[in-house]
Each structure stands twice: as structure tokens, then as C-alpha cells.
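Q: I have 423 residues here and want to know how they pack in 3D. Can you give me a structure?
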Amino acid sequence: MNRPRVTPGPVLALTVVWLATRALMLWLLTHSSARLLGGGSVTREVWRLYVHWYDVLSHGAFPAHDTTWQYPPGAGVVLLAPGLLPWLTYFQAFVVLTLAADALVAAALVRVGKRAGRSLLGAVLWTGGLPLLLHLPLARYDVQVTALAVLSLLTLARSPRSGGVFGALGAMVKVWPALVLLGTPRGRTSRTAWTWAAAVGAATLTLLAISFNNSLAFLREQGGRGVQIESLGGTALNLARHLGWHGRSRYQYGSIELTGPHVAAVAGASLGLTAAAFGLLLLWRVRARHWSEATPFDAALSAVLLFTATSRVISPQYMVWLLGLAAVCLTSRYTSQRPVALLVLASSALSSVVFPMYYREVVDGTWTGCLLMLARNGLLAAAAVLSFVRLWHSARPPAGTSAAATEPRPDSDRLQDRALSVS
């Protein structure tokens, strides 16, 4: 069978843009001490906090009794990885590995986008969208986590086993990649992906528990978090300052959180909304009757958007996750999430204005800070609602087709997987 001819022009253009934008991000990183770029606050997390964790992990233990350590044990592997490049400083090695993960995501999106019936728009979004976050992605390990989630989704149709493995590894680093398997087609595909994810997750957790002390220390600190100032709840409390609410911002659990009256109630409401979002996603899963090649992608973006928007904590690097998942959606011409991808891009651009540019205004609760957060979080909330609504409607059978005809059947999974892989 003849393969479709792919012209090298778009791929070459994407390569040039990737190199140019990453060079710009590196330049910003070297000038991060400028006031408008955060006065060094962006890079401080690597050369101070990550280096400290590296020293602790190097002695065979996870950081116990450290309120800033709130990550699954797989994160330790990522933070130890710069040690593989001993000729560089820890900071330099971390940035090099982050750029390598970034390039891997771009290459995977290009590879899939070049297939017949697919699109390079996903690679375009990732290449042009990540620099909207300025130099922040190079100073956090969220690019590495996003790479695992992207690989999970892109390999799922051809190899559910690989999709499950990558999803599990991502969940071991930061929990959210477990959500990328939510939209797998019913039957053998789901069983294979989820079984391998559970097996690899359990094996990885056991291995890390044997190799390091205090492997579950993160659970205690994660449960103690309050309302971070950039979350939807934090925006509501910051606005309440102008109506007489007597609260204040304070650095705790590794971020700026709000303390004072009614904070516990707002945190509880956020957890309630997260539970409700999970219930809606389960309801979609049960009632969905129509799967396309894009359904797993769309479901992953919708799930992570819902959990992000309702979380007690919305750190600016969370936008890296959403950009990666939106890019995966755009590789398929059947995606329902194109308008959502535009909202994610707009939210990412605003996130950079919030942090690091005007973060002092946000912390102080000025009208400028409040309005910036209201705009950013309003876009995120709108993206989450729109994403789920479009996902829900896309699960309905096509016009003129009965629900029974589109219900995924276990005995037809192999043919379905083959059709998805060809597309």
C-alpha cells in the first residue's frame, strides 16, 4: 500500500520555530532576575528547592516532614535524573533534560500529525503555545510529566499496553496523568490499558518503596494544603478582601495560600466540586455510546481541565499539562475540542501576566491582581465547562445511527483498534 506523500515544508518550518522559540525561552531564563520576569522567583525552585530534594534523595530517602514535598514517589526519579549529566551543574542538566522532553513531545506530535487523515495542528499548538508561559516550563518538571501523558495518548490506539504503561509512569510522577486513560474505548482496549497501568503502577511503587525510605510521605503534606491564591477559591477570597473580608496571604506548603475566616469552607467547596466533576466524568463514561479516534484525547483534556479548574491549587505550570493535552486533541480532525484549545492558549498567555509579571499585585489582592485572576480563571472555568459539554455531545450516536450500532462491543475491539490505528 502506498503511503501518502508528506511535503517537508511544514515540518521544516515547525523545526525552525521550535528552535527559535526555545532559544528565546533560554534567553529569558538567563535574564530571569529582571523584575518583570519575577526577580529570580521562577528559577529559584530549581536551584534551591529541587537541589535540596536531590541531596535528600541521593541518600536513599524521600523528604519526610517537608511541607513542600507533595508529589508521588516517581517524582524522585525525575529530580535525580540531572545527576546523569555530571559535567553540568544541576540547574543546567535539569534544563537540558526539560528541553529534551519538550523536543520529544514536539517530535511525537509531528510523527502522528503526518499520518493520513491526521493534522499537524497539534505540533503547531505545542511549539507555539509553550513559549506563552515564558521561561517557566524550563524551570519546572511538568514538561517531563506531560511528555508521559502525551505518549500515553498517542500510543493508545496502536498499543493499549504501551498507553497504559506511559499513563502509569506519568501518574507515579504527578497523579493527574492517570486521567488520560478515562476515554479508552470499552472492551479489550480498556481492559488491556488499565490492567497494564495498574500492574506497572504497583510495580513502580513497590520498587521505589524498597529503594527509598518515606516513599508515602507526600500524602500527609498534600492533604494539609489550603486555598492557593491562584485558584478559583483564592480569587473569590481575594475579591472578598475588597468587601471587608479579614484574611491574608501567607507562604505555606510551597505556595502562597490565603488564611483567615471561611477559608476552610472554601477549601471544602473546592473538594466538593472536584468530587462532582469526577461524578460527571463517570456518568459520561457510562452513557457514552459513540467513540471516534479523538474520544480518548478529548476525554483526557476534559478530565484534566475539570480537575484543574476545581482544585484548591492552580499553579501556573499546570498550563503545561493543558497545552500538551490540547495539542494531542488537535492531531485528530475528529476532535470536539478546537474551541477549548483556543481558550487554553488564551489562559496560558494570561497566566504569564499573572506570574511572574504581576504576581505581587495578586498576592497583595489589589484590583489589578484580582481582575487578572478573574480573567484567567474565568477562561479556565469556561474551557472546562465547554470541554465537557462538547465531549458529552460528541458521545451521542451520529444522526441516523442507532445507539446499539455505535456501542463498542468486546468482540469487535480488534477491528476497532485497527481502524483507529489506520486513521
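Q: Anything worth noting?
A: Confidence is low (pLDDT under 50) at residues 402-423. The radius of gyration is 21 Å.
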